[in-house]
Each structure stands twice: as C-alpha cells, then as structure tokens.
C-alpha cells in the first residue's frame, strides 16, 4: 500500500489544490512572479517605476467567440422584438380601419398617401397650400369635418378624413395619385 507522500500517488494532488490555503498560495505566486519579472527588466539601472498605467492588458481570446455569439444573440433578439412590434402596429391599424367610411380600403388610402406625401402625416407642399399625409388644402379639409391644420392632425384623423373624401368624391381630389 502506498503512502500519501509517495510521488506516484497522484490522486491527492487535485484534492490539495482545492483547499483554500493552497489556492491562495497559488494565486499569490501567479501575481507575484510576473510582477517581479516586470520589475527586474528595467533598462536604465533601476530608476524607472512600472505602474498600472504602463500595463498592457492580456488578450482574452478565449472570450472572443462567446462574446461574438452573445452580440449576435442580442441583435437577433432586438430584430425579433422590432418585427413583433411592427406586426402588432400593423394589426392594430388594420383593426382600426376595418370599417372605413364608404367601404374604402386601407390599401387604396396607403397608395394615395404614398404618392402624395410619401406617407408623411406632417408633409407640407413647397408653397404651403397642401398639407398632411393626403395633401389636403384647408377648404377640402374643412369640407370633410376637419378643423385646424391638416398637417397638425393625427395620422388616424387624416386617414379617416381622406376615407370620407374618397367615399364622397372618389379619386378626383387626387388627380395624379388617385
């Protein structure tokens, strides 16, 4: 039977390294020896001091792959959240306009808005006479029940007023885009 002090008995080595005393000694040795080696390599005879600012961080290449994977996971998750948000907004918008006046479809309104203003509810023509998502003039806006500036009205109100106008007059108020 072999004793614990026998060099061939390697089963006790891992147990010894797990004890706190040996771990602390090993940690101190890992810190002290590189620091002593750095201090001993002075080039001009010992007047130089090595500080923390002179330290060069070690490359942590072992962490590069997990960090890249983590960043990819973050980007994918953000993209999925954004896609879900867009789907939710689209669903809410279709529910909101499911019963537009006069049976006007949302697709028709979107086509007109895209052509007139690029879909921007705050758009104003270069001369200022046509305003909002559907480029209403003040007279037309008031004729469908709108008040104030069409470009200052909410997008939902502009859609509703455009649907009223389309159901009453067809595409003639938008000669180019209707």
Task: Give an account of the 3D structure.
This protein has a domain at 76-178: Lysozyme. With 178 residues, the protein is mainly alpha-helical. The chain has helices spanning 12-18, 20-40, 64-96, 106-117, 138-143, 155-169. The longest helix has 33 residues, at 64-96. It starts with 11 loop residues before the first helix and ends in a 9-residue tail after the last helix.
Strand content: under 5%
Structural class comes to mainly alpha
Average pLDDT number:
78
- Give the terminus-to-terminus CA distance: 99 Å
Number of H- or I-type helical stretches: 6
Topology:
Layout: H1 12-18, H2 20-40, H3 64-96, H4 106-117, H5 138-143, H6 155-169
Main traits of this protein?
178 residues, mainly alpha, Lysozyme, 6 helices
Write a compact overview of the structure shown.
The protein has 178 residues and is mostly helical.
């Amino acid at each position: 039977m072999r004793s614990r002090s026998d060099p061939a008995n390697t089963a006790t080595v891992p147990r010894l390294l797990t004890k706190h005393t040996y771990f602390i000694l090993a940690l101190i040795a890992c810190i002290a020896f590189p620091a002593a080696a750095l201090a001993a390599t002075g080039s001009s005879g010992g007047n130089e001091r090595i500080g923390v600012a002179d330290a060069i961080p070690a490359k942590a290449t072992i962490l590069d792959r997990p960090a890249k994977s983590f960043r990819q996971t973050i980007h994918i998750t953000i993209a999925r959240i954004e896609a879900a948000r867009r789907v939710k907004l689209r669903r809410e918008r279709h529910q909101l306009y499911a019963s537009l006046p006069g049976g006007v479809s949302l697709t028709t309104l979107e086509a007109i808005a895209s052509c007139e203003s690029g879909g921007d509810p705050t758009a104003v023509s270069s001369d200022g006479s046509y305003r909002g998502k559907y480029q209403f003039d003040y007279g037309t806006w008031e004729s469908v029940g709108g008040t104030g500036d069409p470009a200052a009205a909410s997008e939902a109100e502009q859609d509703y007023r455009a649907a009223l106008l389309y159901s009453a007059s067809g595409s003639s108020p938008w000669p180019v885009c209707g």
